[in-house]
Amino acid sequence: MAGPDCELDWHFSRWTKEMADAQLEQLSKADALLLGRNTYNAMSGYWNGVMADLSFPREDIAFAELMNTRQKIVVSQTEPHLNWNNSTQLKGTLAGGVRKLKEVKGADIIVYGSSTLVLSLNRLQLVDQYNIWLHPVLLGKGKPLFAEIKALTEMHLCKVEQFDSEVVLLHYSRI
After folding, report:
1. pTM recorded for the entire structure
2. Is 131 helix (H, G, I), strand (E, B) or coil?
3. CA 22 → CA 25, 141, 154, 162, 168, distances in Å?
């Protein structure tokens, strides 16, 4: 899911407006982002400044605006530096805190990246759906998508979207 130093540069060469629109649609259905501390730090460092960056693609402004206005909930055992709009730290245990979030009426909660968090949520059977962007790229080394494949809950393939760039978006739901 990322290179040896958590880099994501390999996905830019295949990124298209069609994919950006799909990502925007997905984010528009969410009320909150649930992020691990490292992913939060990387994203806050990037998204905080894009609205003022004139080199940022103007067609991606709607996505940037959603990223900056959605509630961000950080899962961390240490006190995170919360410098991004609408950010809080998850209160209580992971299981209790996420169950409480899921009880709130509203839209979806999205987790971007945060593979350790996703595995923990999966072990607690708190993942309802996986949306996996499959790029036709072999990294060779780096951070695997699922470090503990045996820990995955059985999932059902609901939908497949293929993009002109040969990227495939796989939608799985928990059985």
Report:
1. 0.87
2. strand
3. 5, 28, 25, 11, 11
What's the CATH class of domain 9-174? alpha beta
**How many other C-beta atoms lie within 10 A of the C-beta of residue 4?**
10
Q: Which residue has the tokens 């393939």?
A: 157
pLDDT of residue 150: 56
Strands of the 108-110 sheet, one edge to the other:
87-89, 71-75, 30-36, 108-110
Which residue, 87, 89, 85, is CA-closest to 75? 89
Report mean pLDDT in 10-residue bins for the chain, 175 residues.
Answer: 80 84 92 93 85 75 89 91 93 93 87 87 89 88 73 79 95 88
Count, residues in the chain: 175
Which residues contact residue 14 at a Cβ distance below 8 angstroms, ignoring those fewer than 6 apart?
135, 136, 137, 165, 166, 167
Please state the domain extents for the chain.
Answer: 9-174
